[in-house]
Amino acid sequence: MQLADKVILITGASSGIGAAIAMALDKAGARLAIVARRQEKLREVASHLHNPLVISVDLSDEKQAREMVRQVVTHFGRIDVLINNAASIIVAKSDTVSPADLLTAFRTNVIAPVVATQEAIRFMRIQGGGHIINIGSPGFMMGIPFYAPYVCSKAAFSAWTRTIQAEWSGTEIVVSEYFPGYIKTDSLPDSRLGSIDQDFLMAEQQNFIARLFTKPKTPEDVARHLVKLILKPKTLAYSDLGVKIGAFISNIPGFRLSIARQLAKNARDKKNLSIFDAP
Fold it and tell me: Model-level pTM?
């Protein structure tokens, strides 16, 4: 697929990976629809692009998730690529995480991309094809401490991605899963632990494997990879070899627990957290 004039919908496009993807695809000549909740941030991103369709949407609302796809088709006449990138990231201790937090994460990280995909493929089938790219997270295999709502929902999202890959194999709909690993952005999570920065799980003194798994990439790195993924679709793609190795190591219980235990200790030391809250 050549990118010139292809219609591409990007969710979570107001910052981080989504904004970087939009910049890279715009430069390649694609026609873009950029989606996020924060309209002011979206407008700022749009000011650097060539006449994108800007849609302010709360993806925790299923109806809005469906409607954004219809708006894209109404505006451009088609949709060639849907990039499900938006994510809710809530930081909390696992023994105190609330059902409401879990529901928030699942509505944005699973239900929204599911209904958006279902809506998009209706039009993709009519037009003769399309490409779904789901931005996953290898963190669910590791079990990232204090990110339970996020990693649980990303595990479910991965299961959905792999299910539709099997069901739709051999059809005109191509489905790709992309694992970006740890990305350094200016987006802060919704924290139940007080003020935190993005590096609160990291420490200078940690073993080689932990450093490898948590070595940050930039949104621009990911954007370059995703342009290549659109041009040459794959079933599963990683942002780099380190992420691929980390995903493999996550299937070895001893290594997985060693890394995750270190991350948990780093966070507890920085935030003076106990393992369990008082009953």
Answer: 0.94
